[in-house]
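Q: Given only this backbone (320 positions), what sequence would you predict?
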């Protein structure tokens, strides 16, 4: 794969970290990456370039799969992983629970890669009709905020529905049994349900949420290993650019890993955002809005200040 130049903003963010030199085994003998069946990290794992590059620096990469963002960030919180990616909402819940995490970067918005689904034969045709209904979702995941915003737009609130908190596999089973009336879910589970069982999209994130994907690290790992994070973001940028220009190859590579058809995988990859970027004031504000919303709804126990947990690479001034 040809290397690509990082976007100007990302390069500016990371330039300072370059001065810290090569990673040593004493600094980071292992890099434990939490990932899900979604997103650029799946592509990066399959590619293997990150593993090869860090091996040259004495760093062993370990990949640990999680069913969803909340579980991944619990792994981050207890020290089982050093780095991972989730949607917008899991870091808010994790931080409210005391997780000492840092936002390292984010990917562009992908509002169509999450949706509220209903069965193909459901009489429900609008979000307003979800009043009094049972809705499956993974608590604290990115779709939790989508549901809150969609209900709000329809003149409802979270108390007007019955949430059924289930991880993706269990939620799909409940959805197929008609044990729930709707399911709020993300890709590739979303595209799989659409194409395999004819699930119908009641609403996706368009006009409601940005659905950013965030890259996160523990504060201690980010402090001690800025060069590892720099290499990580370079490789994430490279694999994202490669995917955009080699979609057929990416589909062929990833579909068997996900256990999904090429058609489902292609849909999920097309709806995804690519390219890590530093958190802008706008993105920080959007994430702060999510934190404030969940605090007001009493879904998290305390107020948060997102700007306090945004990674800034350490600076280094050479001696004169």
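A: Predicted residues:
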């Amino acid at each position: 794969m040809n290397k690509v130049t990082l976007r100007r903003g990302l390069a500016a963010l990371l330039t300072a970290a370059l001065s810290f030199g090569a990673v040593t085994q004493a600094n980071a003998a292992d890099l434990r990456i939490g990932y899900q069946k979604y997103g650029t990290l799946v592509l990066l794992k399959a590619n293997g370039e990150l593993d090869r590059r860090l091996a040259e620096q004495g760093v062993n990469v370990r990949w640990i799969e999680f069913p969803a963002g909340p579980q991944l960030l619990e792994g981050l919180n207890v020290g089982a992983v050093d780095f991972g990616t989730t949607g917008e909402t899991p870091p808010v819940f994790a931080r409210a629970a005391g997780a000492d995490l840092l936002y390292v970067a984010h990917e562009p918005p992908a509002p169509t890669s999450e949706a509220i689904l209903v069965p193909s034969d459901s009489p429900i045709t609008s979000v307003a009709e979800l009043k009094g209904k049972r809705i499956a979702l993974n608590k604290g995941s990115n779709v939790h905020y989508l549901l809150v915003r969609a209900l709000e737009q329809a003149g409802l609130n979270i108390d007007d529905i019955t949430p059924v908190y289930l991880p993706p596999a269990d939620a799909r089973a409940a959805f197929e049994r008609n044990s729930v009336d709707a399911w709020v879910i993300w890709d590739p589970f979303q595209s799989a349900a659409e194409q395999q069982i004819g699930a119908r999209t009641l609403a996706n994130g368009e006009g409601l949420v940005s659905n950013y994907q965030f890259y996160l690290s523990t504060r201690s790992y980010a402090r001690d290993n800025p060069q590892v994070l720099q290499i990580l973001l370079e490789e994430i940028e490279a694999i994202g650019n490669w995917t955009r220009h080699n979609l057929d190859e990416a589909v062929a590579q990833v579909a068997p890993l996900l256990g999904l058809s090429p058609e489902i995988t292609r849909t999920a990859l097309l709806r995804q955002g690519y390219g890590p970027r530093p958190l802008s004031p706008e993105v920080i504000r959007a994430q702060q809005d999510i934190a404030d919303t969940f605090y007001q709804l009493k879904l998290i126990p305390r107020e948060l200040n997102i700007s306090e947990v945004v990674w800034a690479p350490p600076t280094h001034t050479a001696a004169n």
